[in-house]
Amino acid sequence: MIWQSVKNKDNSEIAMRRIGIFGGSFDPIHYGHLHLAEEARCTEKLDQVLFMPAWVSPFKQESLPADQEDRLHMVRMAVSANAAFSVSDMEIRQGVVSYTADTLRRCQEMMGEETRLYFITGTDAFLNIETWDRSEELLRNYSFIVGSRPGYRQDDLDQVIRRVREIYGTDVRKMEIPQLDISSSGIRQRIRDGKPVRYLLPDSLIDYIHKKGLYAQSAAEHVPEASEIPMRAIDKAIDEVIRGRLKPSRLAHTYGVADEAVKLALRFCGNACKARTCALFHDVFREVGNLTHGPAAAEYMKREFNIDDEDMLSAVRFHTTGRRGMSLLEKIIFLADAIEPNRSYPGVDGIRLAAKCDLDKACLLSLEHTMRYLAQGGQEIDPQTKEAAADLREKTGGEGRFDEGKESPWTTGK
Q: pTM of the prediction?
């Protein structure tokens, strides 16, 4: 690692400064964020924790996001009482999606080799660290502090930590933190519903939010100016990602799913904007495996594009398996993946026909078809797929029917 070779001209070791970098949308920042930062500072004896509010893509969410300046101001207010906390506007000033590798490289250049950087993150994010943009560069050159909750996916986390230590020599510090059931999305929803948020975030921020009228209006109630949601710019950013990662056949499939998702959203009164975005991301990490690429893609959306809409994340996370109690958006992405125009397998025409009038029945047909195919091939059926099918059978009052056939329904991409 680069830290082992940092010495003075007389070959003596340089006293390293230890700086934690804590990134996020912070929309709004709350006590969960502040506690994690302070726990990391004390546990790992950091000299400073630098909060890095991210530029947030203006995707429609349940509540309107605060703009960049308001979020930046609230972070500064929240950390002002702690002399060891500071704030950077580096990513916000860029006005585009920032990648962790770029941010840490720029921080390292500004702070010098005598500074050791620790990237502060959570368990779910670190589980997918090897899918991050330029992950090897990150793992070989920077340290990580991973906040974990007791009993929360500990075995999976420990396995990833062992692997990156062995392969890349990564310095990873696992830090257990008490469970604080606080989330930015939950705070936004409570404000919109008129519920109290005191003791979830500092009083000064509550006053600021009320004074500015932040989060009180839902996205559905707001008719934006064309300049407020520059979807062409967002689409361009997503296009650059998927064009760089996907082979031509997978790219054609992805665009086919996006087009189909929009049609289904419009047909069944869903959010076409969210549907298209989820579809574009759904296969971005297809190479990591059939059952793992969905969760990896969802984490990538959250980490690199600052999309914290749980419905969107779940739609991508479960697009392969489905699950019990799927939302409208989850069903749309699941079904669009199954019936996009490039798909060709026995039974697909029947599923497409059902999709013209009954979303639940079409999803059930697709699930039944997949389970039948897997059973014929002696392959294990994911429990979530079974539960999704059982749930939809209850809702539709019957079992899905489809053409028999041993050919895989996913030969062109799922």
A: 0.59
